[in-house]
Amino acid sequence: MLIRGLASLSRGDTGTHQTVSLMRQQAREGAIDPVVRETAARAVFGVPGYDGTTQARILREWVSTRTVFLADPLHVEALHEPAAVVRHILRRGVIQLDCDDVAMLTAALGLSIGLRARYVVVGFRSPAAPFQHVWCDLSGTRREAWITVDPTRPSQPIGNQRVTRAFAVEV
Predict the structure, then answer these.
(1) How far apart are CA 115 and CA 138, in angstroms?
(2) CA-CA distance, 132 to 123, in Å (whole number)?
(3) In terms of Cα–Cα distance, which of 96, 97, 116 is closest to 107?
(4) Cα(first)–Cα(last) distance of the chain, in Å?
(5) Is 0.70 surpassed by the pTM of this model?
(6) Which of 13, 18, 66, 129 could be a cystine partner for 125, CB 3.0 to 4.6 Å?
(7) pLDDT one-digit tens code per residue, 47-88
């Protein structure tokens, strides 16, 4: 299930951008996996017409009730393939993940049913501090609002600190 340890990536902003690039790739690959597509389709089944906002909210609830925050080991970054994560959830009902894994899972589920997805990467403390957190936003169309899917933040040591740095990248 582990795709790769990312300890060899650059530190600082360069490493963050490298990680986000890998996350985008994994979400796109996960979105075409049959188990991800079927799971997302089942989750939103019955939503009348094409309502991306409602579908995004349903996926937010699905992810929030099936994931529990677990930080990566100190100074080690690891990413888990969204399809493997979904398989684990279908077998066990819940999985422990960190914020980047939850963001990739959310993006893959959303993309698989035609939603737009973006990662929002943020830093806290000071403008010079490193980026420390990522989540996924989902949207149906360019006219619909982004729905934030961030179930891990309340469990993290960062709590509700003020965001000092941020960037968003569409998946």
Answers:
(1) 6
(2) 5
(3) 116
(4) 21
(5) yes
(6) 129
(7) 866 788 999 999 999 999 999 998 877 667 788 999 999 999
